[in-house]
Amino acid sequence: MPLALVHARYQLLEIVRIPVAVFGSAFFPAAAMLFFVVPFAGDDAAGATYATGAMVTFAVMSANIFQYGVGVAEDRDQPWNPYTRTLPAGPAPRLAGRILAGLVLTYLSMLPVVVIAAVGTAARVTAVQFLLGAATVAVISVPFTLLGLAVGYSLPSKAAIVVAQIIFFPLAFGGGLLSGPDDAPGLIKAVAPFLPTRGAVELMWAATTDWRPDQVSVVMLGVWIVVLAAIAGWAYRRDEGRRFT
Amino acid sequence: MRRNLPEIGDNRYHRHPPVARSGYTGAVPDIAPATATIPGDVLARADQATRRYGDVLALDRVDLTVHAGELVGLLGPNGAGKSTLLNLLVGLRRPTAGQVELFGGDPRDPASRRLIGVTPQETGLPGTLRVGEVVDFVAAHFPDPVPRGELLDRFGLTEQVRRQTGGLSGGQRRRLAVALAFVGRPRLVILDEPTTGLDVEARHTLWEAVRGFHADGGTVLLSSHYLEEVEALAHRVVVIGHGRVLADDTVDAVRGIVGVRRVSLVADDLPPLPGVVATERTEGRTHLLTTDADQLVRDLVTARVAFRDLEVRPTSLEEAFLAITADDRPATTTV
């Protein structure tokens, strides 16, 4: 078995043995779906589909920011982490394994949203749109994975939890995930294209509906990916486990 | 000059009651290293290695060479820089200045680490994983790992294979941690305080494992603040204090370097005496450690101290060690 899969398997084993951790990242988007989407847009097929796309994006963002931001920072606090760095493997298998495991959990965390959308709302997609949407999840995981890694590798775990929570809400609101594609308040309309959440949700809508994505948002998403990759890479290289002064 | 240094019986230096070797029945691991070693090969080397953490100088221009087939004990109190040196050698940290090498390469290059075995700290095992899973995980990193059953059998953990590591006793966790260093059939095993917190029996089981590995041609670098452990295992002792190598020699020679003698006597009251590095009082006797026993006796006589039952004896490594590290004590840090 390739080393990356070995690392992914053990990451998942550790997480699955404390199942509430999986439940956590699935809860918030599912709850938002139940309380905001089902009562208000449930009967409107187009509106419900857009809202579901937004909640899926929300789930992707929260799952990634938390599992990487908090997960990586907590791992760095554990003596097991430096031990694994003495094994004869470079950072690649460990990182690839972590990202594979993260992707599995990301898909798991959005299952409730998809089920609620299918059962409780008029949201509908074709089979092709469904598959495109599923593939888009992997694509839009990229910026949030990098954001999580940047937080996780640069901060101690207690700080990482706070920072993850602080950046998570403005990104969700500011990117317009909690409002429809066209009826967002003026401020959000002005800010959204410059946030990575907006580019991500535009891609998700484009995959699952006939929405035409806003070019500024998509270009900015690319810019975010480059910037976040640079920050995450820098934070990873300077990391030598937890530091004390 | 008289100092109030840690006393000889100070339990920071954990003396362990001797155990009759004949009564020992624990498993004796027999884990031969993968490759025949050429005696004299340099396996690990530090060359003027310096490491700072902010303002703190944890390691100050340290030279250390470990040759194939050696069993080297790194001895020093907490915060002396032992762990920092080992961390540099296994590639966890970079030296601020100077060089470290493992099998002739940079320890930060994974290929350089293929022939080493390292032990995690006991508290660092992932608590939710089972014993067998942890072994399998580590084994997946090596081309020819020791089979799981064999390894666990040798470290007396066969019955625990399905247990989560969080549920193991301290001794079992420690044995698992040390077992992991041997999974990949290493040529060089680096053990950072392998027996800290173990009971006597478990400690001796691990000692036998280390001796068995060394007898088969394996090379061992271990750190300890248990002096007894280094005396029992190592052939060569490197004494580290305040980030510097204070002595690097055989156990006997290190004892000789300092030439510390124990002068013990019965006396009610002692004046300040020059050349005394430590003082202890037990059962009415006063024990003085000194580098110059002759002068101390002359001083006692000159000062007209009313003493009786005078005894002068050579010291243990523990006492020698106290004498070497006692000289200067700037602020250091535990890393």
UniProtKB/TrEMBL annotation, chain A:
GO terms for molecular function: ABC-type transporter activity. It comes from the Bacteria. The chain crosses the membrane at residues 20-41, 47-66, 95-118, 130-152, 159-178, 216-236. GO terms for cellular component: ATP-binding cassette (ABC) transporter complex. It is a multi-pass membrane protein. InterPro entries: ABC2_TM (IPR013525), ABC_2_transport (IPR000412), Nod_factor_ABC_transporter (IPR051784). Residues 9-204 form the ABC-2 type transporter transmembrane domain. GO terms for biological process: response to antibiotic. Keywords: Antibiotic resistance, Membrane, Transmembrane, Transmembrane helix. It holds the Pfam family ABC2_membrane. It is found in: Membrane. This is ABC transporter. It comes from Micromonospora sicca.
